[in-house]
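Supplementary Methods, section 5.1.

A reviewer requested that the exact input to the structure prediction be made available. We therefore reproduce it here, unchanged from the version used in the analyses.
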Amino acid sequence: MQDIDKHGIKITTRDRLMRAWQDSMELTRDYEIFSKEMEDERAAVMFSNFARDEGLHAAKLLGMLKEYDPLA
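The structure derived from this sequence is encoded token-by-token as follows.
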């Protein structure tokens, strides 16, 4: 099923997967950087855990994206 936004543009499942994967990769990088910049050890560990979790999300999104686009 394709969604159509208010401008009449078709947004496919692949489009949404690609956007989510890109966002997830960016968050993974950000959290990893934050974990290395924190002076507070609790915050550093928290951000490190977030980076790991978000990396797992990114991997799952990429796996599904490859089902929709084998060249991804």
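Residues 28 and 49 are 10 Å apart (CA to CA). These observations are discussed further in the main text.
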